[in-house]
Amino acid sequence: MTVGIDQINFYVPRFYVDMAKLAEARQVDPNKYLLGIGQTEMAVSPTSQDIVSMGANAAKDIVTDDDKKQISMVIVATESAIDSAKASAVQIHNLLGIQPFARCIEMKEACYAATPAIQLAKDYLAQRPNEKVLVIASDTARYGLQSGGEPTQGAGAVAMMISHNPRILELNDDAVAFTEDVYDFWRPSGQPYPLVDGALSKDAYIHSFQESWQEYARRHNKSLADFSSLCFHVPFTKMGKKALESILTDDIDEETKSRLTTGYDAATYYNRYVGNIYTGSLYLSLISLLETHDLVPNDTIGLFSYGSGSVGEFFSGKVVEGYQDALDIQAHKDLLNNREEISVETYETFFKRFDNLEFDPETELQNEQNSIFYLESINDHIRNYNTLN
Ligand code: COA
């Protein structure tokens, strides 16, 4: 019996800002953003795309009519919740038309929460061979205009169908989590943006990775040679690279070093053009690896998940034969390539409108495309969603 990722898909809003132009506007050397941080473009949300609509958009293309009958749990991982009580999974469950006898919950631990959601789904399904769990990671990563974290913003969602006999990645029984109480990034209730100690967050990430990896290797008697590729949580592409390089020590053979470095580049290709999507970043990286790199069946992929605060987790999965057939690579390329570049000035306008929840139906409609869920209005704090047909 195997459980794992049977389907995986992502959604990003259709606007982006060019990082070189953002750097110029902020009077920063563009190479700091392009090379130092490692980001080329950054996804920008219009007011009409929140965690619910993005999550539903990521999921709608992988949820079939049969799935709607079989899904018995929907978990949304997010750190940009729109409600402190009602789980966004309930709204997504409704938008997708999933059968009513299902559990719907939201999970939180900064960028880490989709990983325990997947592990929970895996354990839950062990006794339920005919059921499926839909896990969605959805976030708008926002630090504020002209803030230190501004070049590491982004927006988007990843949806994953967890089931028996998965078509993409079998999950191994090997996860090792590492928890450490650290204030590297946090968002007290009511604060619009997180508080972040940037330098500490980079150190805490690397420390969490090293602890998780070393304990994983010790418990399971594994070395880097056992992995075809590694995927990391990618707040910006340079971050995971730093973590990877920290364990590519002199005693590691050159072939392994080269394989993991090449794999890392493939695993961060999409992230470089989207920016940080918090909970979905690791899984966008996995999609990027699966779609832009040559993998063979039974290859083992190692995954490192990190959420500030902090919890890290290292786990692995095995690539399933024919996995390419379960991916819509062209649709993902089209989604990224058909986006519209907006100027820094327009990005700032979008940013303020999003913060103030400014709705102008005509503007919202112009920002959306056919068959896409979008936030249409908020009345008495109740969010209403619609699709264009
Ligand atoms: N050309 C090339 N590289 C340049 C450069 C230039 N002109 N100017 C600076 N850099 C490099 C720096 O050397 C540094 O690289 P290094 O980390 O390898 O030394 C990198 O660009 C970033 O510079 P830094 O001075 O650290 O930038 P910063 O103080 O603006 O902070 C972040 C960057 C990422 C910490 C900040 O954007 C942030 O706080 N983001 C949110 C938190 C986050 O994402 N944390 C990650 C862990 S979850």
From TrEMBL:
Similarity remark: Belongs to the thiolase-like superfamily. HMG-CoA synthase family.
Superkingdom of the source species: Bacteria
Protein name: 3-hydroxy-3-methylglutaryl-CoA synthase
A Pfam family this chain is assigned to: HMG_CoA_synt_C
Domain Hydroxymethylglutaryl-coenzyme A synthase N-terminal: start-end pairs: 2-164
Provenance organism: Staphylococcus caeli
GO terms for biological process, alphabetical: acetyl-CoA metabolic process
Annotated binding of (3S)-3-hydroxy-3-methylglutaryl-CoA, by residue: 29, 143, 242, 276
Documented EC number(s): 2.3.3.-
Sample GO molecular function, one term: hydroxymethylglutaryl-CoA synthase activity
Active site: 79, 111, 233
Keywords: Acyltransferase, Transferase
Record domain Hydroxymethylglutaryl-coenzyme A synthase C-terminal: where: 177-260, 265-384
Entry binding sites for substrate: 148
Alphabetical list of NCBIfam families matching this protein: HMG-CoA-S_prok
